[in-house]
Amino acid sequence: MAKAVFHISGSTKPLRGTIEVRGAKNDILKGLAAVLLTRGDIAYTNMPDIEDVRRTLELLKSLGVQMTDRTTRVCTLNASHIKGHILRRDIAEQIRASIVLAGPLLARQGKVRFPFPGGCVLGKRPIDLFVHGWSAMGARMRLVGDEYEFSASRLHGADITFYKVSVTGTEAMMFSAVLAHGTTVLRNAALEPEIPHLADFLNSLGARIHGAGTPTITIEGTDGKLLEGPGQFATLPDRIEAGSFAALVAARGGKVKITSCNPEHLAVPIEILREMGVRVTAGKDFMLIESKGKLKPIDMIKTREYPGFPTDLQAPFTVLLTRARGASLVFETIFEGRLAYIDDLNRMGAAITICDPHRVLVNGPTELRGRHMESPDIRAGLAFVIAAAIAKGPSVLEGIYKIDRGYEKIEMRLRRIGVAIERKKS
Ligand code: EPU
Question: Whole-model pTM above 0.85?
Answer without folding.
Answer: yes
